[in-house]
Amino acid sequence: MSKKKVVVVGAGPGGLTAGMLLASRGYDVEIFEKEPCVGGRNARLSLGEFHFDLGPTFLMMRFILDEVFQLAGREAKDYLEIKRLDPLYRLKFGSGRELLVTSDSAEMKRRIEELYPGDGAGMDKYLAYEPEKYRRLVPCLQVPYDSPLDYLRPKVLQAVPYLDVHLSLYQHLGRYFKHEETKLSFTFQAKYLGMSPWKCPGLFSLISFIEHDGGIHHPIGGLNRISVAMAKVVEEERGRIHLSTPVREVIVRDGKAVGVRLESGDEVRADHVVVNADFGHAVHHLFPRQHLKRWTPEKLERKSFSCSTFMLYLGVDKVYRELSHHNIFFAPDYKRNVDEISERLELSQDPSVYVQNACVTDPTLAPEGQSTLYVLVPIANNRSNIPWASVQQSYREKVLDILETRAGLSDVREHIVAERVITPLEWESPRAVYRGAVFNLGHNVSQMLYLRPHNRFEEIDGCYLVGGGTHPGSGLPTIYESGRISAGLIMKRDAWL
Predict the structure, then answer these.
(1) Which of 160, 200, 381, 395 is most exposed, with minimal Cβ within 10 Å?
(2) Distance between terminal CA atoms of the chain?
(3) How far apart are CA 160 and CA 306, in angstroms?
(4) Phi (first) and psi of residue 146, to 5 degrees
(5) Which residues pair with 28 in a beta bridge?
(6) Which pLDDT score, from 0 to 100, does residue 191 have?
């Protein structure tokens, strides 16, 4: 049988997953990436000798990463050195109280009870219900949804009682815990989806359970090293990755994707096309509009999208040993902060801030005795029309003030030796993230499973989607799953499985 040709648009984690799985099964794979490095939002950002993850910093569900490498005939441990973190993260609330979160359930219960008397018993209830919910729901996220009839699969029907979509995430956790800060400790993870815990469906209590059950991991060198490792597997399997080679559009003939046209004007033909570009960007720029019906630019505009982020990447000439690897500093009025981001689309004047202090785990990221501080502020996406060109500098100062006060880094300004700022405007252009919504389409019930863009793109035959804008959704493990699902659909179509 002659080799089937697959072209992948974008070398992000979804495209690389699909590419390495298909290449390992004998497909002729070519990946075209507009940036000069692989990874997309999972790439490395370097400021001299200071190295950062551009985007994701939490590695959860490590078993999925192991599985996709094994499907490609590899072992992830041969390509990556990965450390498990404990504590998982440090939470500091507006009250000044701090909680070091651990995956040791007995110790976690003790810490909760010490800070929030009566809520320790809630941990027992949480651990009695959430493991079964996880067992029922995760398999439903590992299969495609091409038809409403897919909801009638036995595994989906068996999972229905555990969906908890009639409750918000905050309401669902309220069944376990009474104290506000305990609830926030198990609901702030809605921010991984770019959503409010007061709007995010209750089924996403899965995320906090995944953290507590399977832990949070850090690959030495940063999560960006995963993309580099996947690219290496693609090339070992004789796949080709073309960097600094943007795609202008997907070529469609008689309703079928037959290849891509590069910005250079060159055409590359293929039997299948996998699109790893940001979905909103692809709708506006990569797919010929006459072939779009369900997902037109006009209909997309009516969909809900995640928040964006204001980013500070700081190289500092000291190491802050008092900070954990992951740290979250909540706004004094967290509910107001979240509403400003997701409902009112305003610039939060008293925001919550996440700080990754990775060098306490991974000294390879900075020169000896120095370190990196990755600072992320959830912020409204570009539907807000916030004038970032005029407010960027003042907002930087506000965030540094928070680091000096709330985070306790009183001398941080004195020690900054390298710095980079990214606002929602840059996420949108030139980084091609629609509306700067870095977590993509919202994960509300009306935009999940069959109601999310399909892995086998329903608008164009022979076109497959991977990444946070398709099923199963945002977050590295689910993006890896999107690559595995789409690769599986292609192989099944060609009867190579």
Answers:
(1) 160
(2) 14
(3) 25
(4) -100, -15
(5) 5
(6) 87
